[in-house]
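User: Teach me something about this protein's shape.
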Amino acid sequence: MAIDLPTRARVVIVGGGVIGCSVAYHLTKMGWSDVVLLERKQLTSGTTWHAAGLVGQLRQSINMTQLARYTAELYRGLEAETGQATGYRQCGSLSLATTPGRMEELKRNASMAKVFGLAVNVVGPQEIHSLYPLANLEDVIGGIHIPSDGYANAVDITQALAKGARGRGARIFQDLKVTAIHHDGDRVSGVQTDRGRIEADYVVLCGGMWTRDLAAGIGVTVPLHACEHYYVLFQDVTGLTPDMPVLRDYDHCSYFKYDAGKLLVGAFEPHARPWGAEGIPDDFSFGEIAGDFGHFEPVLLDAMRRIPALEKAGIQKFFCGPESFTPDVRYHLGESTELKNCFVAAGLNSIGLQSAGESTCGETCRSRSTADICGRECRKAWGCCTRRIGLSVNMKRRAARASRRCMTA
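Assistant: First, the predicted structure itself:
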């Protein structure tokens, strides 16, 4: 099918996941009408489509919490703004503590949240039971409850962001692969696609787990690597109701979410398994990984102890798919040091949906530092960090840190 591909744009966004579509949405909201987004396959087809969809707001720093709060507020009104369903539901969340150290951490986070008015309630086992009667709390000493947390459908959110961007003039092209990024050695000048060249003042790399190799082709350093991410859908769970909050069991690396009459149990297990060390297949789209049930079994057994009703429930789906992680579990966000006007928004460590707010995306093409937001500017990455072998080995250790940082995904 012939497409009307422009020969020039002010900005070209590479990648049509939730981050790329949010960049387009926020740039057009800022008044940038000459925006082009290019997606190699279909929107969400990389990793966004299988996101669990949790939208939590309390993070480990004030700036990151403010970012997450903005994203939750955006999603609450996005369906009304665009007319596209988002599946957003404000059901609240519960985070459990089974050790004094974990409880102290949760209390400190709750105190931090008060600085900017996020309601966080410190709760004991009795209150937790009233909110989540399915949970076995024999080892739980307390937790926190955030009434305004929730979840959304990642595909629907992405489509809504894309619709909002299109409504303000952005052009989105699917099944159009970027084969090269043009530059003069100092700054980017456009992109080459398999259907022609587009000149551009800015290029934003939002290609998820493909970003490292695409950036390396122009000498830009973006260390990230894909790892396996698992979840299981349980059906016929006795006592499950739609109004139950999202449950996070940090000390056992797991989270629990109501999902269309089923219970989704996901985890960031302590010893992650890297994927794609030899490269990601060129035709990978809406893809799953075979996975290893034995690898996930210890987490699953802990989940069954936490929710005893799972022992008699049926497994509808055992899922394993890729998610990209950075060596220090921090975002790659901002302008690259190697090429002017080449921006990166990638390596969201499995919390892209929660992080697709203005500070991550709209600010990406503004000329201000993002170090206060993410703690890592793109310019701080070392070239040696992009070597596949080193990244693969490193991810076995580093992705385990996501059990604390990423269970809000």
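Now, about its shape. DSSP finds eleven helices and 18 strands in the chain. The CA atoms of residues 226 and 324 lie 4 Å apart. If you'd like, I can walk through any region in more detail.
User: That's plenty for now, thanks!
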